């Protein structure tokens, strides 16, 4: 399987269990690995045969600006669902990170995989 990857995508969303976390949007960082449904784009060189990563980023930033989450796990699940259902990816790995949310901790995050990754 061919994979598109995006690293350190920044987006703003309301997230957190604590009330003080939900007073204003936080910038989160997202790493994505997205399985491409076929090898067609490797041969056709046509953007229509693949998942357009620019559209993925635009869609996620817009959706996250409008959504509220309590848990990183729920946020990661939402992202994986969008990638698989809206973009037709058979497999996705999603890492979501909060930056500097705890004293002395640079990053806190979660990593999930959804779908089937053929071997």
TrEMBL record:
Q: Which cellular components does GO assign to this protein?
A: cytoplasm
Q: Does the keyword Signal apply?
A: no
Query: From which domain of life does this come?
Result: Bacteria
Which biological processes are named by the entry's GO terms? folic acid biosynthetic process
- Domain (Dihydroneopterin aldolase/epimerase): residue spans on this chain: 4-114
Pathway(s) the chain acts in: Cofactor biosynthesis; tetrahydrofolate biosynthesis; 2-amino-4-hydroxy-6-hydroxymethyl-7,8-dihydropteridine diphosphate from 7,8-dihydroneopterin triphosphate: step 3/4
Could you tell me the EC number(s) of this protein? 4.1.2.25, 5.1.99.8
- Which GO molecular function annotations are given, in alphabetical order? dihydroneopterin aldolase activity; hydrolase activity; isomerase activity
Q: Does the keyword Lyase apply?
A: yes
Entries under InterPro entries matching the protein: Dihydroneopterin_aldolase, FolB_dom, GTP-CH-I_C/QueF
What family is reported?
Answer: Belongs to the DHNA family.
Under the heading Gene3D superfamilies, the entry gives:
3.30.1130.10
Provide the taxonomic classification.
Answer: Bacteria, Pseudomonadati, Pseudomonadota, Betaproteobacteria, Neisseriales
Query: Which keywords accompany this UniProt record?
Result: Folate biosynthesis, Hydrolase, Isomerase, Lyase
What's a Pfam family this protein contains?
A: FolB
Q: Which reaction does it catalyse?
A: 7,8-dihydroneopterin = 6-hydroxymethyl-7,8-dihydropterin + glycolaldehyde; 7,8-dihydroneopterin = 7,8-dihydromonapterin
Record's protein name: Dihydroneopterin aldolase
NCBIfam families per UniProt: folB_dom
């Amino acid at each position: 399987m061919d994979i598109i990857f995006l690293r350190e995508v920044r987006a703003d969303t309301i997230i957190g269990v604590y009330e003080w976390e939900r007073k204003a949007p936080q910038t989160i960082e997202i790493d994505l690995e997205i399985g491409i449904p076929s090898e067609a784009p490797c041969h056709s060189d046509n953007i229509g045969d693949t998942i357009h990563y620019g559209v993925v980023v635009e869609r996620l930033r817009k959706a996250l600006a409008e959504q509220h989450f309590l848990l990183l796990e729920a946020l990661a699940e939402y992202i994986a669902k969008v990638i698989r259902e809206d973009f037709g990816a058979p497999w996705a790995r999603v890492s979501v990170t909060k930056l500097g949310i705890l004293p002395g901790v640079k990053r806190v995050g979660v990593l999930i995989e959804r779908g089937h990754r053929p071997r």
